Amino acid sequence: MFFILFLKGILIGIIASVPLGPIGVLCVQRTLNKGRVSGFLSGLGAATADTFFAVVAVLGLTYIINFVQEQQFYIRIAGVIFLIFIGVRIFYTNPGIQMRKQRFKKNRLIEDFLSVFIITLTNPLAIFLFIAAFASLGLVSDGSSYFSPVLLVSGVLIGAAFYWFLLSSIVNSFRSSFRLRRLWWINKIAGVVIFFSGIITFIILFFT
CA–CA separation, 134 vs 154, rounded Å? Predict the structure, then answer.
């Protein structure tokens, strides 16, 4: 029973991570520009934020859920601003400089992790997606056991981390075939995609 619960957590973690979106684009861009470790740690930032949402959902932490419901507009606005900033920054990034930083061990990997963690955390609607997923599988905690939620949430983290490790590894396998000119274009395209993801989210927030 516990093993099945753990597997369900892994499956939910993978499913929650699969939609590419701006986070996926960002992780692919960083993998191609800075290497697999940067791409994986960026994805791990998203996995960690998703795990936090899973903890809130599975434990039914009402005060956090209520706060999110009351403040979600402002939380998402903060996320939109940060997303637009990241998009502009990527657009103007020089892949040659990033490669030189990597060569001389000057990558700030903690920034890669934290930036994606913050972006993911500013999408509080994910909490409700986890609540729906857990409820549909009958996995929401009733407070009678502490081990089951820990096992379930651990599965979510491992599943999400596995997905980002797999994605960054696959993208990294093609990295050697990309020359600076192609990486330059990838940065431009990724920056535009992420920037307009933020703009579209902004429009949806204010006009729907």
Answer: 14
Amino acid 160: pLDDT: 95
- State the Cα angle at 149 between 144 and 153, rounded to 5°: 175
Both tokens assigned to 161: 């981390």
Domain count, the chain: 1
Q: What is the pLDDT of residue 62?
A: 75
Structural domain for 60, as ranges: 2-207
The pLDDT score that the predictor gives to residue 99 is 61
| CB neighbour list of residue 207: distance below 8 Å, 6 or more residues apart | none
Residue 186 · residue 46 · CB < 8 Å? no
Q: Are 201 and 83 in contact (CB under 8 A)?
A: yes
SS3 content of the chain, % helix, strand, coil (to 5): 85, 0, 15
pLDDT, tens only, 103-148: 545 557 898 999 999 999 888 778 888 888 877 766 655 454 556 7
Pair 39, 31: CB distance under 8 Å: yes
Residue keyed to tokens 């507009």: 73
Which residues lie below 8 Å from residue 202, measured CB to CB, with a gap of 6+? 77, 80, 84
The pair of three-digit structure tokens given for residue 26, joined into one six-digit string: 């960002």
Please, what is the average pLDDT of the chain? 83
